[in-house]
Amino acid sequence: MRAPGAGPTTAPPGSNRTGWWLAAAVLLGFVLRLVFGLAYWVDKPLTLDEQEYLLLAHNLAHGRGFSYASPESGRVEGRHVGRAPLYPLWLAGISVAVPGSAIRGDRLPASVPTEVKVVQALLGCALIWLVGWWATRVAGPGAAAVAGRQLAGRHPAVAGVAAAFLAAVYPPLVWIGSYALSESLYAVLALLAALVIDRAMTPTTAVRSYGLALAGGLLTGLAALARPAILLFLALVAAWGLVRRRGWWLAAVLAGAMLVVFPWTARNHAVYGRFVLVASEGGVTFWTGNNRLARGEGDLAANLEMKRAALEIERAAGNATPEALEGIFYRAALDDIRSDPVRWIDLLARKAFYTMVPVGPSYTLHSTRFVVASVASYLLVLPFAVVGAWRARGCTTPPVALWLLAAASVMVCLVFFPQERFRIPVIDPVLIVYAAACAPAMLTDREGSAGRR
After folding, report:
1. What are the Cα distances from residue 324, in Å, to 265, 281, 328?
2. Could you tell me the pTM of the whole model?
3. Contacts of range 111-115, beta carbons closer than 8 Å, 24 or more positions apart
């Protein structure tokens, strides 16, 4: 029995007869990811981020700790960005589990190892299931009632299966797992953390609510160790808890996150002699999105003038560590904002535009085939997502945690800068969820029309 006042329960998309369809979607997604990674994306050069992740994983696998030392020289060569620890640990774990892994070789791999692509294809399967679960939740009985019709019990499952198939074939979600980048791991952790927190928000017994809140906090902390950007989601969850006056519930969420993040923060203070919550990459990222040369979208690779300015800041800093550079870049960005606030407001408007319309300067760095597949898939899903969100408006049990996660992802793009990699892990899956939420209503409309004939 549900506690009094509890919202309608939503079965996961794998229940009953829809389980076979969900399994088919997951299998399709797995096959497409393997085909892309093992048959097409082969022997491709690594990006700087991929090189650094694999370097950290190599040293971790060999027991040298979280080190940027080159395996050839044993010295740290050049500057490096301070990275969050979980994804390198994930790669190191893969290298230990797979005999003969290229990550543990004498030299760093020149392209993404096969074992990474295969394991991340499996992560893609988990993401497909999560997207299906969220679509079932959004298209549940509460949303149906608001739309002025009582959908049959099978219809939310239709949305779940539709979302799973969309996530299985959606190009950016297919190809992201073939890169040695944290997005594949982060997307699963972020959506799973929001799922658990969403369940914790539903009125139920105190023990269950606090237990789920603690588990949601733990998962959010893990996601923060993959990408610290999710801390904005944690801040929004905290604001929700304060507004709803659920102090102990909020304490459980924050305690769970702190239990995971604090040991790494303490390690950073011991190693660097300064406070670094998770990683020191935030400074250069904030500067990239807010300095006087920023265009509102794209990283340093998409703006050579800005890249030269960043190198000048680093040269002026001398032998400053990445942890010391973080503060230097933050101060430089804030100085540019204060010197011309009107320019920054205009920049903020452009960032808002590029967050929702993927046509920024960074896309010119890619092949026409890549841009067409990325932009076309996004623009095809977007209108259906808008319709789905409209049909689900005013749901009696709204998916608050999913909204907060999406809002936090948009905030990341506004505070820092929009880029496809920032959009793919959360914003694109949320759009797929709401696009699939159209399916039950469309099915009901069709059945209603047939019944009136």
Report:
1. 16, 11, 7
2. 0.91
3. 111/42, 111/43, 111/44, 111/45, 111/46, 112/37, 112/41, 112/44, 112/46, 112/50, 112/178, 112/179, 112/180, 113/180, 114/37, 114/38
Angle at 34 between CA 29 and CA 35, to 5 degrees: 100
Query: Mean pLDDT, to the nearest integer, of 347-360?
Result: 93
Please tell me the distance from the alpha carbon of residue 418 to that of residue 357, in angstroms, as a whole number.
Answer: 10
> What angle, rounded to 10 degrees, do the helices at 18-35 and 114-138 form?
150
What phi, psi does 397 have (nearest 5°)? -130, 75
For 143, residues 6+ apart whose C-beta sits below 8 A from its C-beta are 391, 392, 395, 437
pLDDT in tens, 292-325: 999 999 888 889 999 999 999 999 998 888 889 9
